[in-house]
Amino acid sequence: MPAFSSKTTHLEHGVFVAVKDVGVLIRGPAGIGKSSLALELLDRGHALISDDVVQFEVHPAQNKADSVKIIGSAPPMLQDLLAVRDIGVLDITEIFSNSAIIPAHRLDFIIQLDAERTPNRSDFTDLYAHPPLLGHKIPSQTIFAHPSRNIALIVETALKNYILYKNGQDAGRKLLVRQQQYL
């Protein structure tokens, strides 16, 4: 009989990658380019955790200063594999190396790929939505996935900007302050 587990498990559609130690779930409708984006991120030196289906578990906080951690991994059937349209299923460890695969990682950020451009924002502050996953709010950003855009570069830059934002450097707020000073 299996032992009782206090962890909450959830399967989520998407691609889970680690970009400079930031665990990123890439979501979007079928055919938008989630796996192609992951392939480009792998080529840029980042790592794949899971393609198509990600298994997430909530791990309780170790102490009061920590928040819970949501850890994602690949179901055993999908480990090390990436399915890219027009190419087929790729064994990432054979094409790149073992270092291109991470067995599990904490979820830090969600990128939502969207085929439609969202209306222009006049306010560059509060860019990050926080949709819940397993009852916990996860920072998220929607990116317009037009084929002419370099989505991998945009994702890398969005994550760098988010890290700066988390550390108190809000470029959108800085712009608003400068505009108000100018007026």
TrEMBL record:
InterPro entries: Hpr_kin/Pase_C (IPR011104), P-loop_NTPase (IPR027417). SUPFAM superfamilies: PEP carboxykinase-like. One of its GO terms (biological process) is regulation of carbohydrate metabolic process. GO terms for molecular function: ATP binding; phosphorelay sensor kinase activity. Residues 11-177 form the HPr kinase/phosphorylase C-terminal domain. The lineage of its organism: unclassified sequences, metagenomes, ecological metagenomes. It comes from hydrothermal vent metagenome. This is HPr kinase/phosphorylase C-terminal domain-containing protein.
